[in-house]
């Protein structure tokens, strides 16, 4: 079996991350990101679960994750995966979407999977430009024209955005609390008292609404906060403790499980030396 390879780049012009995973078998647990993920399968087959719905994805399929879309994936029949993706922060997506449409909004992609997507070749071209660390006009043009096509073809029309369902008030309150107190030790009793629900009702409501448990939500918040600290150059142990992890080993385990890279591998893409 071929040895797996994991390559990552950060494009300082476009302000996007590019991942390329080759020959991986890793199972990714249910989690979310605070940024958009636009990716495609170069080779392999996987079972994807996004917002409690299952999909079978394979070569040529394109995936879209909006910020906070819960998702998990695993291999089918022990097939290895070759996968590329671009990670785009919400503020960058908002800026680009406004330039493209003339309206200030965050696009909401309606489906996490587009089978045999006609835009996969352009996405591959742009991704390779980022991996090759090109800094030219063609790369920027490709980025803007691709996002224009993807937003027009696969996102919810701007005027329908306000009609989307929002979490219940109790779940929204808990999310705000977890985002604010992620670095602290949090117990289920604490959360139950905050929203005045028994522990089981809290867990059921939270998980049914968001498709992820409070614990997984908290760990994802902590990973996202740790990423920001790694980007600024903090040592992994400091990033871990600042973000609420009990030690570096605990942190490294969750980071690799959620992101597919070690903290050190991730930090290297921001090293300009």
TrEMBL record:
| UniProt-recorded name of the protein | AraC family transcriptional regulator
Show the PANTHER family listed in the entry. HTH-TYPE TRANSCRIPTIONAL ACTIVATOR RHAS-RELATED (PTHR46796), TRANSCRIPTIONAL REGULATORY PROTEIN (PTHR46796:SF2)
Keyword set, alphabetical order: Activator, DNA-binding, Transcription, Transcription regulation
Domain HTH araC/xylS-type residues, every copy: 172-269
Q: Does the keyword Ribosomal protein apply?
A: no
User: What broad taxonomic lineage does this protein's source fall under?
Assistant: Bacteria, Bacillati, Bacillota, Bacilli, Bacillales
> What InterPro entries does the entry give?
AraC-bd (IPR003313), AraC_XylS_family_regulators (IPR050204), Homeodomain-like_sf (IPR009057), HTH-like (IPR037923), HTH_AraC (IPR018060), HTH_AraC-typ_CS (IPR018062), RmlC-like_jellyroll (IPR014710)
Q: Is DNA-binding one of the keywords UniProt gives this record?
A: yes
* Provenance organism: Rossellomorea marisflavi
User: PROSITE patterns of this UniProt entry?
Assistant: HTH_ARAC_FAMILY_1, HTH_ARAC_FAMILY_2
List, alphabetically, the Pfam families matched: AraC_binding, HTH_18
């Amino acid at each position: 079996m071929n040895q797996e390879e994991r390559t990552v780049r950060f494009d300082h012009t476009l302000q996007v991350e590019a991942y390329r995973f080759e020959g991986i078998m890793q199972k990714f647990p249910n989690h979310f990101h605070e940024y958009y993920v636009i990716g495609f399968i170069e080779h392999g087959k996987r079972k994807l679960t996004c917002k409690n719905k299952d999909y079978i994805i394979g070569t040529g399929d394109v995936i879209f994750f909006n910020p906070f879309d819960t998702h998990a994936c695993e291999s089918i029949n022990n097939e290895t995966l070759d996968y590329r993706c671009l990670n785009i922060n919400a503020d960058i997506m908002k800026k680009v979407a406004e330039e493209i449409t003339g309206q200030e909004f965050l696009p909401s992609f309606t489906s996490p999977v587009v089978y045999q997507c006609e835009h996969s070749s352009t996405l591959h071209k742009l991704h390779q430009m980022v991996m090759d660390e090109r800094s030219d006009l063609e790369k920027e043009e490709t980025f803007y024209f691709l996002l224009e096509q993807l937003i027009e073809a696969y996102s919810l029309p701007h005027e329908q955005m306000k009609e989307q369902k929002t979490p219940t008030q109790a779940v929204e309150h808990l999310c705000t609390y977890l985002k604010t107190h992620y670095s602290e030790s949090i117990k289920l009793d604490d959360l139950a008292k905050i929203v005045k629900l028994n522990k089981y009702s809290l867990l059921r409501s939270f998980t049914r609404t968001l498709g992820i448990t409070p614990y997984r939500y908290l760990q994802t918040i902590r990973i996202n906060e740790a990423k920001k600290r790694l980007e600024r150059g903090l040592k992994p142990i400091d990033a871990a403790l600042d973000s609420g992890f009990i030690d570096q080993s605990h942190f490294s385990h969750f980071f690799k499980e959620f992101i597919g890279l070690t903290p050190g591998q991730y930090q290297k893409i921001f090293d300009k030396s």
